Amino acid sequence: MKSRRLRIEIGTKARSTQAAMTGRRCAWIRCAMVLFLAWPGLAAAARQGTPQDGNPAQASRPAAQPHGAVVGPPERMAANALFNQHCASCHLNAKASAKAIPLTGRTAPNTEVLGQMSTESIYAALTTGAMVQQGKSLTNDQKRMIAEFFGGHPLGSTSAGEASHMTNRCASNPPMGDLAATPSWNGWGNGLANTHFQSAEAAGLTVEYLPLLKLKWAFGVPAGGEMSGQPSVADGRVFFGEDNAFAYSVSAATGCIYWSYHAEAQIRTAALIARIDQAGHAVDAVFYGDKRANVYALDARTGALIWKRNLSSRLLSHITGAPAFYDGRLYVGLAGSEELVSSDPHYPCCTYRGSLWALDANTGKVIWRTYTIPEAPKPTRKNSIGTQLWAPAGASIWDAVTIDPKQHTIYAGVGNAFTDPPAELSDSIVAFDMKTGKVLWHYQGVHNDASPGGCFAPGPRGAECPKVEGPDWDYGDSPILRTIPNGKRVLVDADKGGTVVGLDPDAHGKLLWKADLTGGRPGGPIQVQILWGGAADYENAYYPLQAGAVAAVRLSDGKIIWRVPIKPSAEHPGPGGRPRSGLEAAVTVIPGIVFAGGWDGVLHALSTSDGHELWQYDTAHAYATVNGVSAHGGSLGAPAPVVAGGMLLVGSGYVGTGNGMPGNVILAFSAK
Questions:
Q1: End-to-end CA distance of the chain
Q2: DSSP 234
Q3: Is the CB of residue 354 less than 8 Å from the CB of residue 373?
């Protein structure tokens, strides 16, 4: 009802605003990005995080709360006018959205979606997130009014995310045990090789048990809207961080909560658990990265901060790939969203360069840093209003890197260039020396891909646009390292366009094969087919496709073994009543089963032999939660399902780039 009321309340004034702005360069980053890719943490994004483990001495400071919530007709009318003036042309204009979809493959969240999101998420997007540049013309109170207009509650209520406010505190908090003694899922890809594979023994789940799966518990994330942080499981505990800027530890058996930690910004990474040394004592630590480029090491038992390291003070610098741990070091990729503001003629585009960092896991001390673009940006030309432009820029590392102890090498998928000519390592799979960070070799899958934001949008082209825009088909997912039955090894990765490659890691990245999964994209210059990545057992790699299918590719030669269409549910239609088709979230594989989730919120279990469906569950509905927080499921995007110790865990709720359904719930299934 709230979203319907908002649509009526906005009314004809917004339509007149749309007409006035028809000739303006609306570009998908001007207003269309207010929430998409812009969940950088909640209103407390600038505060120092504080653990909450029940000790009064460690209580968090109260959340900062701007004064004067939007509570009455005058305030709501003022917020309505602000929205009409600054945002309605993209978020309300049906014509603009209809044109943007085929041109960019992306669309702004409509008012119905905005009406389901939290005040904190919208406010953060305008103040510390991807819309900070576009929102600079608004005062702080104006940003607050817009956020509260859609969010429906006063800003600053993030203290509800603390464990001390939840109803299901664990009765005890015993010391951590041997991490190797119980089934686990650790980090993004469940191991150094990022296979997203779980053995039969560790999974504790087989095809025969699928029909017996039942929801064991649901945990609601307070003020959450996107479940971007993939859970990890260790020693009977589940660790995860989410878009409300909190990290949590709960019991895998019951969902009771051990602790919470309030970070500075949204946490999108999977949790990584590793044993480190603190003053001669072994301590189990859990590591995260956030949307303000901070790396955190927390005590896995208590949630207390051990250390924090900021890798970049730039507002548009993010850590989206989970840290990787090996031999006392953390390896972390750094990404940047500078391309999102590149079409603003006042912005000096572009100077951001992706980078890979090695940190001492005990202290957070930087050991080395390697830029994906060695050359520092230099001034190039000025645009029509005199703003200085720069190059080269881009080549972010969005993914969790893959570790190869045999070759003492780190593999990373690298993003597109922001400027022309494109950087040499853009759209590449890159091998770095583990000890020094030196680039050893790279395979560039897509050439000439300079694709700053806004260059595909209707209207005049800005001076930052290249002569020929690239397709933005970078490697945003983690490379998968596998030893196949013949004893040979293969490094597998997919670009966003849908081409999967197999490289020889023992022959400097020699190309072994290509598999073409590009078919089925709905058309247009930017069409994402594979985004968050696949999984691999010992025979095949499995990839979800935005075209609405899952495919299996043989590791030995790249042959497509099967490709099965996934029919979207009619229960949760998208804008215009269209089905929410396509699969974007990463997949997980256990012997005999591939788990894949879609934009429609349905989680599927498919047979690895031929892709036929074995089981499904619609996650997009309301839940009674163990922690007493109101929760609802939504689209499944970004993180993969996690399987360990007979349990299946999945976060439901994702808006992303396709007007997905928000949600704020972690679901735990078990056959017992």
A1: 38
A2: E
A3: yes
pLDDT band at 544 (very low <50, low <70, confident <90, very high): very high
Which amino acid appears at position 189 of this protein? G
CA-based nearest residue to 593, from 54, 211, 128: 211
Tokens representing residue 367 in the block: 């050991």
Place of tokens 């990265």: 289
Q: Contact at 8 Å (CB) between 283 and 299?
A: yes
Task: Count the neighbouring beta carbons within 10 Å of the beta carbon of residue 467.
Answer: 9
Residues 6+ apart with CB under 8 A from 568: 548, 579, 580, 581, 582, 598, 599, 600, 602
> From start to end of 434-558, where are the E strands?
439-444, 480-483, 489-494, 499-504, 510-516, 535-536, 540-545, 549-554
Nearest-CA neighbor of 662 among 155, 50, 220, 131? 220
Radius of gyration for the alpha carbons in the chain, expressed in angstroms and rounded: 23
Q: CA-to-CA distance for 616 and 413, rounded, in angstroms?
A: 31
250 three-class SS: strand
* Spatial CB neighbours of 149, under 8 Å, sequence gap ≥ 6: 6, 70, 76, 79, 80, 82, 83
What are the backbone angles phi and psi of residue 278, rounded to the nearest 5°?
A: -130, 105
d(CA 231, CA 225): 16
Q: Is the peptide bond before 641 cis (omega within 30 degrees of 0)?
A: no
Tell me: the pLDDT tens digits for 471-522? 889 999 999 999 999 999 999 999 999 999 999 999 999 999 999 998 876 5
Scanning the structure block, which residue is given the tokens 């109101």? Answer: 630
Residue count of the chain:
672
- The CA-CA-CA angle for residues 42, 47, 51, to 5°, reads 95
Residues 6+ apart with CB under 8 A from 548: 520, 565, 566, 567, 568, 581, 582, 583, 598
* In the block, residue with structure tokens 């790699």: 541
Tokens of 180: 């190797």
Q: Does the pLDDT at position 380 exceed 60?
A: yes
At 43, list the tokens. 């209103």
Strand pairing category for 642-644 and 602-607: unpaired
Do the Cβ atoms of 399 and 321 come closer than 8 Å?
A: yes
The lowest-confidence range among 50-64, 319-333, 467-481, 572-586 is 50-64
SS3 content of the chain, % helix, strand, coil (to 5): 15, 30, 55
With H, G, I as helix, E, B as strand and everything else as coil, classify residue 83: helix
